[in-house]
Amino acid sequence: MFDSLSQKLREIISSTAQNKTLSEENMQDALREIRRALLGADVALSVVKSFISTIKDKAQGEKVIESTNPSQTLIKIVNDELTNLLGEKQSPLKLDTNPSIIMMLGLQGSGKTTSSAKLALKLKKEGKKPLLVALDVYRPAAILQLKTLADDNKIDFYSLEGEKDVVKIARESLNYAKENNNTVLIFDTAGRLELDSEMMAELVLLNHSFNINEKLLVVDSMIGQAAVDVALNFNEQLGIDGVILTKLDGDAKGGCALSIVHCTNKPIKLIATGENIEPLEDFHPDRMANRILGMGDIVTLVERAQKNIDIKEAKALEDKMLKSEFNFEDFLKIQKQIKALGSFGGILSMLPLGISKDDSEKISHEGEKQFKKIEVFIQSMTPEERKNPNILNASRKKRIALGAGMDINELNAFINQFETMKKMMKGLGGFKNSMKKGKMKMPFSMPKFPF
């Protein structure tokens, strides 16, 4: 998400930083390029005008041109305004009743049903007991899809077969939820290919019939500026509480995120990436602004690690590595934990590496390719070979390479790198033990990490 905008803004800021001083002229040039970058990222014209005007006023107010580090001051102003444009601060779901009701809204194809399941999974991991309610009575596949997703993820599901009255289904689901001790109901309502009066009438009736805690509009970020019109229509007739943006990893522009918040004055509450059923993520405007400007998002990466990585297993693996007892089975476990953090590209986008988009894509592509190769090599080994790398003689290596369908030189290179890593980790283990016993002192102070 925001790939094209992020790349362009970094280039503009980098170009500005090369100037010894920031004059009125090159300041205007920078603002003009920022304007073009925003328009190129599919940001609505009215939003671009407001954004540029605000930056210009702030730059003059803070006397950017006269500051000791004008480019850094300009970065701060752009970062602050991007954060404001994205909603300023994170907006949590208001689920203050038991049971609470969330109504999912959106056009057909926006990812509403999948997002309902992802939201249920997020709430389940937070200790709540969600109930997925199928209210799309016009598309039988939608009910089956929701039920399948619910079953696959062990989430409670409710529908009334053959019933077309959505208010009746919703009322019966509320009674069921109270008997079943469900704490949150998620209404997966019907979508259409386009907005129509019949669709809105049904949603308005649902809205008036129940005390809805959250009306969340699911928007496909790939549709660009059209997303703003959809959001404005739903907000005008139903008064939405927030937005869920889907397919963010597939949208290089991301301009609709900037436009929706500004035009509707409603926050983006949650975001979804990928087709796999992973929990929705909270949307943090300040963190997204940092990522757009290439400053990374370490906090989100750490939070994701805390949620997805088994701490006990990670500690056990660390101990084995430091004692040089590490084997290929352990290597697969580490790969699995890294995958739990997301794709290589996603992880790189959260690190403040300061590299270009092309370099990031090359590293990401090469990393994914190497991970797959290593996985194939290890899976071509017998359980005994995985647990005891020392028994890998020439004939075994030949058989493994043949089974993996790869060159034996690649296998040898991987095994050599693996052995080198083991030796390095063993040395680090000895150094760590010496430190614990007080035999050695650090020649420098260790940095403090946020995890």
Short description:
By secondary structure, the protein is an alpha/beta fold. It has three domains: 3-85, SRP54, nucleotide-binding domain (Four Helix Bundle (Hemerythrin (Met), subunit A)), CATH 1.20.120; 100-286, Rossmann fold; 307-436, 434 Repressor (Amino-terminal Domain) (Orthogonal Bundle), CATH 1.10.260.
Features:
Four Helix Bundle (Hemerythrin (Met), subunit A), 434 Repressor (Amino-terminal Domain), 19 helices, Rossmann fold, alpha/beta, 451 residues, 58% helix, disordered C terminus
CATH class of the largest domain: Alpha Beta
Spatial order of the strands forming the largest sheet? 3-2-4-1-5-6-7-8
- The name CATH uses for the topology of the largest domain is Rossmann fold
The proportion of residues forming helix, as a percent range, comes to 55-70%
Number of strands: 8
CATH level-four homologous superfamily name of the largest domain = P-loop containing nucleotide triphosphate hydrolases
Description:
The protein has 451 residues and is α/β, with parallel strands linked by helices. An eight-stranded mixed beta sheet has the order 3-2-4-1-5-6-7-8, with helices on both faces. The chain folds into three domains: 3-85, SRP54, nucleotide-binding domain (Four Helix Bundle (Hemerythrin (Met), subunit A), Up-down Bundle), CATH 1.20.120; 100-286, P-loop containing nucleotide triphosphate hydrolases (Rossmann fold), CATH 3.40.50; 307-436, 434 Repressor (Amino-terminal Domain) (Orthogonal Bundle), CATH 1.10.260.30. The chain has helices at 3-17, 24-40, 45-61, 70-85, 112-125, 140-152, 166-180, 197-209, 226-238, 255-264, 285-292, 298-308, 311-322, 328-339, 344-349, 357-379, 383-387, 394-404, 408-436; strands at residues 100-105, 130-135, 156-158, 184-189, 214-220, 242-246, 268-271, 281-282. Helices cover 58% and strands 9% of the residues. Strand 6 (242-246), helix 10 (255-264) and strand 7 form a beta-alpha-beta unit. The protein has 19 helices and eight strands. The two termini are 26 Å apart.
